[in-house]
Description:
- With 270 residues, the protein is of the alpha+beta class.
- Helix content is 37%, strand content 17%.
- It has 7 helices and 10 strands.
- It has helices at 32-46, 50-80, 86-91, 106-127, 179-187, 205-215, 252-258, and strands spanning 3-5, 12-14, 18-20, 27-31, 160-166, 172-178, 191-195, 198-201, 229-232, 247-250.
- A 4-stranded mixed sheet has the order 6-5-8-7. The chain has a two-stranded antiparallel sheet with strand order 1-2.
Amino acid sequence: METKQCTVCGQEKPQSAFTKRAGKSGRRGTCRSCMRRRKRDTITAILPRHSDSAVVVETAASITIQAAAEVAAVGQAAASEPRGVEGAASESPPARTRKRKHRRRRGRYNKSARLRKQQETQQTAEVIKLPVRPPDRVIKQIQGSFTFATSVLNDRGRGHIRLRGYRETGKRWSTVIPTEMAVRMVEEGAAGIINSGMIHKLYTKTDFRLLILQRDDYICRYCGKFGDTIDHVMPKSKGGLSSPANCVCACSECNLKKADKLDFVNNDDF
């Protein structure tokens, strides 16, 4: 076992009897017992003797009794002053009142909350106005040398045609679609032919939506009310395309009711 000599007591002690140095692997020169003894001697030297502590306690007690007597005298003088004087009433400290816990009646609170909510709903319904048709915007097709004769298309036995288009940001995208779908897109006015193996969409998504709404004058095809959504007559789940021939204007209620039905008829009385 490795030992080390304490610099205070001079005894040989094991390494575990010494504290480690901060950030170093070596040990300190003073052992733990000598460090505790030194700390105990320092505290004893700082504390006052027994006789001095008794004097301090007695002095503190006398000062406390004297302060209490002065406070009581001030209180009696304030109580003896007349209440009619505004200055005296303002200078006297306010009486402490005990806070009471207000219990909330749940049934009454809920009833008033329901009534208030009903009133707010009625006011909101009165404020709501009929929707206003937004102004028209000129929708232009994407410029290009397009042809619309479907006989030009030739997939060369691959079974698919490449479709191109532009995003609203101006970036170009492309994908591959079946030849039959490409032919239908050209026939329904959604795309134009660039060459025998490629077609191009004529409108971006935003322009196509505005084109359908402005064409139908923002009137729902099923109920005749104001409409601001687009519905596919032949649902996309059943092979319908997003083309001017297959899309109509519809209100949100009729659009949700129709869903993917083919023979939807609105029987509600408007």
